[in-house]
């Protein structure tokens, strides 16, 4: 096996939780490419592949090393053009950046606040120290303070996904009749929540939750294999 | 000339303002298709082409009549496959629905509040009565009350466009190196604001405003030909 997805975990290797790594796991499955996943703690990432990248995902594909989830998806699309497409053409490639931006700017911060203490508690002691410090540096607040804002985020979460909900009125996946990388981008954010803090706060009859469940079922339940927190 | 875009205006026919009609105007120009635009007041739409549609845009293309901006773009893509693509493939088609949903759910309401009194004042008396009643029915508030919320919307407007801003960090248009229908969707919302209430409240160094200016320049300044209010 020459294909390795380096990803992120806490003390329990069987519960990888990085949103960006989940995007790549589904992208690889979408292309029908076998891979082994090797999850590392935060503070061990710098040692992967001789310090190739400060962040995961990292993909080793034979002789090639690629970092960054979007770059990896672009790489897979180019390297495996005969496998099912991740973008559905050049327009899909460009517009997937907008989905990524929506996910990063609108979905990631609420998930961070809802999940941050849960993530902390999943880490070993070395990672806990790193996590506290790096999040304070990035977000300007102690993780307890961010977590305290999580309750309000739970109440507002469904409304943030209105553009997704309206899109799903027209089609079963963001990518149309079947999923594209754009779906995996948003899936990654909700799966990050699900694995660390439990199911996203959406009602059972919400079409966004139904879409998420469909994504969990893809590729023999690749996402569902990790039980919800 | 057998190609007609039926659109929307107030008392001044030279200032069509419907966001959805602007999308189609740019889509036609993108395809290099000549057309004449025939703007009608709200209360005259029901008479266009023997009552073909309750809303504009309506496109007459020879024998064909098509309604709804997205449907018209899909029609043009199918009818004129040898002209420049509006979607860049099937993925772009599907993901353009997400851009449309973002524009409708995140951008249209603030523009409505910022522009509603200006739109009212552009209309003739018959349309003013219709506009007041239909907006009350749709939005549950008198237009004066909606307009009063406009100031707060001005202050928050730039932040609503964060996902657009981040996308433009990677590429000059939502569609990539050159514009696609996705760009015209968002352009339509900002042009609606510009023609009725003046330039969107974005700072000069905002990449979103710079993108909007690039869109105004497209096709010999098709959008710029109507001066800002």
Automatic annotation (TrEMBL), chains A, B:
<dbReference type="Pfam" id="PF13417">
    <property type="entry name" value="GST_N_3"/>
</dbReference>
<feature type="domain" description="GST N-terminal">
    <location>
        <begin position="8"/>
        <end position="84"/>
    </location>
</feature>
<dbReference type="InterPro" id="IPR036249">
    <property type="entry name" value="Thioredoxin-like_sf"/>
</dbReference>
<dbReference type="Pfam" id="PF22041">
    <property type="entry name" value="GST_C_7"/>
</dbReference>
<dbReference type="InterPro" id="IPR004045">
    <property type="entry name" value="Glutathione_S-Trfase_N"/>
</dbReference>
<dbReference type="InterPro" id="IPR054416">
    <property type="entry name" value="GST_UstS-like_C"/>
</dbReference>
<dbReference type="InterPro" id="IPR036282">
    <property type="entry name" value="Glutathione-S-Trfase_C_sf"/>
</dbReference>
<protein>
    <submittedName>
        <fullName>Beta-aryl ether-cleaving protein</fullName>
    </submittedName>
</protein>
């Amino acid at each position: 096996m020459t294909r390795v997805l380096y990803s992120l975990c806490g003390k329990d290797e069987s519960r990888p939780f990085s949103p960006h790594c989940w995007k790549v796991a589904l992208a690889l499955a979408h292309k029908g490419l076998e891979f082994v996943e090797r999850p590392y703690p935060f503070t061990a990432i710098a040692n992967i592949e001789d310090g190739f990248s400060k962040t995961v995902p990292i993909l080793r594909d034979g002789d090639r090393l690629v970092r960054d989830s979007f770059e990896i998806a672009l790489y897979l699309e180019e390297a495996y053009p005969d496998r099912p497409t991740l973008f559905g053409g050049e327009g899909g490639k460009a517009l997937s950046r907008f989905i990524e931006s929506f996910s990063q700017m609108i979905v990631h911060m609420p998930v961070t606040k809802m999940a941050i203490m849960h993530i902390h508690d999943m880490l070993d002691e070395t990672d806990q120290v790193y996590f506290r410090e790096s999040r304070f540096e990035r977000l300007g607040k102690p993780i307890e303070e961010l977590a305290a804002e999580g309750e309000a985020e739970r109440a507002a979460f469904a409304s943030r996904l209105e553009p997704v909900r309206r899109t799903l009125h027209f089609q079963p996946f963001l990518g149309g009749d079947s999923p594209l990388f754009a779906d995996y981008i948003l899936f990654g954010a909700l799966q990050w929540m699900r694995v660390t803090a439990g199911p996203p706060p959406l009602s059972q009859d919400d079409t966004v939750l139904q879409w998420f469940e469909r994504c969990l079922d893809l590729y023999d339940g690749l996402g569902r294999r990790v039980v919800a927190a």
